[in-house]
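step=encode ok
step=design start
structure_in=
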């Protein structure tokens, strides 16, 4: 009996409490912020670490003098304080220990839950929410179980949160293999969406159909509206793709001006004014002929 009494405090001290419980009891202070900093680097491949992957920074301080063992469950929603930025779903649970009066920072695996909005960037903060719906949680649990913290998992999540279909998928990728992996993940999670319901049309067929009307498809993962806005003002003319057009327009303008001046006789008058000797020589030449 004495041995059990002796070990009881040790066992209790090793139990993990939810981060929400720690907040409710004012044991900790918590700050959640987007991790992406476009000033530091630019993602050009698959946006890993921008709208999925380790895209959320956790800043937590223990207000107690004793060590806390805290758990953050997957499936918890994080609500953005910027309406232009997507809400976030945590996709991998974390257990961590924090000593008394200690402050630590780390990154969480998470994914965006609103495909049309901006990514969780630095300076945008989030509020800790509740666990997502049971339907979405099935997909999140499968993402964690299969370690799909990648594009496959992100598209599977969007298939639930945004009900994307194959045409919507084509706005971001033309990879048939990737689509098949997304469908397999959804099927294995037991969740039916528009994307993984029976649909005979392949991406190749959809691409050929849409090329007739909408041109080529290319990968265009959501990063930020500020990155997709067209250049304006002076920067417009110095953007690489517009330099050629600007040069041609300038040549055409100079040609028109020259043609107008020529027709009005301005050029010939200017020439006579600048070179009067040439005109005298012409007059002498006419005298010789007479």
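sequence_out=
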């Amino acid at each position: 009996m004495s041995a059990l009494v002796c070990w009881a405090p040790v066992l209790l001290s090793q139990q993990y409490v939810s981060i929400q419980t720690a907040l409710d009891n004012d044991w900790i202070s918590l700050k959640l912020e987007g991790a992406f900093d476009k000033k530091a680097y630019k993602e050009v491949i698959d946006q890993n670490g921008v709208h999925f992957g380790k895209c959320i920074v956790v800043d937590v301080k223990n207000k107690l003098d004793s060590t806390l063992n805290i758990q953050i469950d997957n499936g918890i929603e994080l609500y953005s304080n910027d309406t232009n930025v997507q809400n976030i779903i945590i996709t991998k649970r974390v257990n961590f220990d924090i000593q008394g009066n200690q402050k630590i920072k780390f990154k969480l695996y998470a994914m965006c839950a609103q495909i049309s909005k901006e990514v969780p960037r630095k300076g945008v903060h989030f509020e800790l929410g509740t666990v997502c719906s049971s339907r979405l949680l099935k997909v999140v649990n499968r993402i964690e179980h299969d370690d799909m913290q990648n594009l496959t998992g992100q598209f599977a999540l969007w298939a639930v949160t945004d009900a994307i279909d194959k045409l919507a998928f084509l706005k971001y990728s033309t990879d048939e293999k990737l689509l098949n992996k997304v469908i397999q993940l959804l099927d294995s999670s037991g969740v039916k969406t528009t994307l993984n319901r029976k649909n005979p049309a392949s991406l190749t067929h959809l691409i050929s159909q849409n090329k007739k009307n909408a041109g080529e498809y290319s990968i265009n993962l959501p990063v930020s509206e500020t990155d997709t806005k067209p250049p304006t003002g002076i920067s417009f003319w110095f953007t690489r793709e517009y330099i050629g057009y600007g040069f041609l327009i300038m040549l055409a303008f100079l040609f028109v001006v020259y043609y107008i001046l020529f027709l009005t006789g301005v050029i010939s008058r200017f020439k006579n004014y600048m070179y009067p000797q040439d005109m005298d020589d012409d007059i002498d030449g006419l005298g010789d002929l007479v």
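step=design ok
step=annotate ok -> Strands lie at 17-18, 28-34, 52-62, 68-72, 76-80, 88-90, 94-98, 103-112, 125-131.
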